[in-house]
Amino acid sequence: MIKIENVTYYYPETAEPALRNLNLSIGPGEAVCMMGANGSGKSTLARVLAGLTGITRGRVTVNGDDVADKTRSRKVGILFQNPDNQMVAVQVEKEIAFALENRACPLAEMDEAVTAALEAFGIAHLRERLTSELSGGEKQLVALASVMVQNPPVLVLDEPDSYLDEPGKKKLQKHLARLKTDNPNLVEIRITQYPQVARRYPRLIVLDRGAVVADSSPSEVFSNTEFCLKTGLRYDRNRYHAVMAEVSLPGNNHLTDKKPDKLVVNRLSFGYRKEPVIENLDLSLDRGEIVGVIGPTGAGKSTLGMLCCGLLQPRQGTVDFYREGDLVSQKPRPGWVSGVFQQPERQFFLSSCIEEITFGPKNFGYELTPEEINGFFKMAGLEAARFSSRDPFSLSVGEKRRLAFAVVLATYAPFIVFDEPTSALDREGVGRFITMARELKDRGVGLMIICHDGDIIRELAERVIYLPGDGSGDILSTSELFQSEWHREVISSPAFNED
Question: 237 lies in a domain?
């Protein structure tokens, strides 16, 4: 039994509470889904339940024990939105064994449990790999295994499938079902941004600005269109098209002046250690074109994006740039290719959001006007008045991703790589990204979108490069992809319009 009584929490130096006077009860064996717009307090509540964040006032108990009492054993297993935030060991095997070691689990029993967890999530081949070398999806599977191996009585999953491919999502569902069968009293709290996930649960709790605004069945919540639009559970395309029309972004000379109009990946090869991830890959991207990149977890999608951005150097081959048919460089130059990482906080290093947005342009020799700065905030879905002076690391994961969009847009790069751009975004944010991507295409920007989301691929990509994981790559039209029999094993089934 979980009891949340009059809980309020303020982050340091913030005027508004992240959680405000919350009251909730969750009984033994309940499976509850939680939704809400970016910044609504979902992840904060998850950390409070796990005893990782103290509260300003109120009380939280799990099976009668106050979570603030550090003398009590932990009863809540938690998976963070960003798996990097809970990695403590350098090797996969040791990461999964860490919690069991802290409980003085016998060695033979621990080895058996670790092996079973590795096999359950299909990551036995990663057993001796360094956690720092894993892809985002691989890290998420390892983090899941490290939580599940403990068999906690309460399980809090904060967007557990955000970086997973379709096989990974199916393994997650299968393992959750098995846990429930083995322990009928297990309490599961699942945070998600996807209505199709929420519909699997009998109870849906919706947060808005730190308060509970709905606690009912998913069908009842989703039937109220006005409520869903207000709380970010649905997206109004017309509303955002109007926002885009209002945003005037001068400075297109920064975008067109002496910058290339074609990116060509030419016989590119790269590998970590001795293992090849990409071999002899060819690909082209024109200005004003959108190319999708898909493939299973660990196939080299993010690696390809970093090679195009110049953040990794190829073992063989080149990333060529052309202007009006002439080769101008065989590697990216500053300001030509910008990228949004899977974990956007990895590209932040300044003390305020406005500094992050203006840093790149200053390095390229031009100052953004106040109108441009406000325009970038507005395009990303952040209020300049609220976020300009905020520390980027104090934002929610979804807000960080929106800030990363603004940071990248401000560079006026002719090519942009988006790596899992809709992960952790609410439905309004997903719709906003779709509209933003189309606007960028119309303004002559070439986009490479790496993702597992079938909706994004169907809505935006003209061509798709499929990396199967053996170093090769196949180029397909979007229609060919969705006509294939195997596409559902690689990306999610389109479901954006379900809600």
Answer: no
